[in-house]
Amino acid sequence: MMEAGNPLLWVAPAKARRTGQTLTVQSYMTHVEGRPFALDRSALRLTVLGASKAVDIQGCPAR
User: Fold this and answer.
1) CA angle at 9 for the pair 57 and 32, rounded to the nearest 5°
2) I need a labelling partner for 42 at 20 to 30 A (CA). Which of 2, 3, 25, 51 fits?
3) How many CA within 13 A on the CB side of residue 19?
4) By the 8 A CB rule, do 19 and 42 touch?
5) What is the pLDDT along the chain (63 residues), one digit of tens a residue?
6) For 5, which DSSP code?
7) How many whole angstroms separate alpha carbon 34 and alpha carbon 9?
8) Can you spell out the DSSP letters for 13-53?
9) What pLDDT score was predicted for residue 61?
10) How far lies 63's CA from each of 6, 41, 60, in Å?
């Protein structure tokens, strides 16, 4: 699950892909009014659920 941290941003259900030990998650975000927006990456929240574990990731650092 992916959350934008802004209630005016709609986030599509995420698609996940795993290659070895790397998990790649992709989603689509849009402003509910159809306007351009600036994304606050520090407000992003990713929740990854596994068979026996869950991981909560808050924020997305710049690379």
Assistant:
1) 165
2) 51
3) 2
4) no
5) 899 999 999 999 999 899 999 988 899 999 999 999 999 999 999 999 989 999 999 998 766
6) S
7) 9
8) PPEEEEETTEEEEE--EEETTS------GGG-EEEEE-SS-
9) 76
10) 22, 12, 9
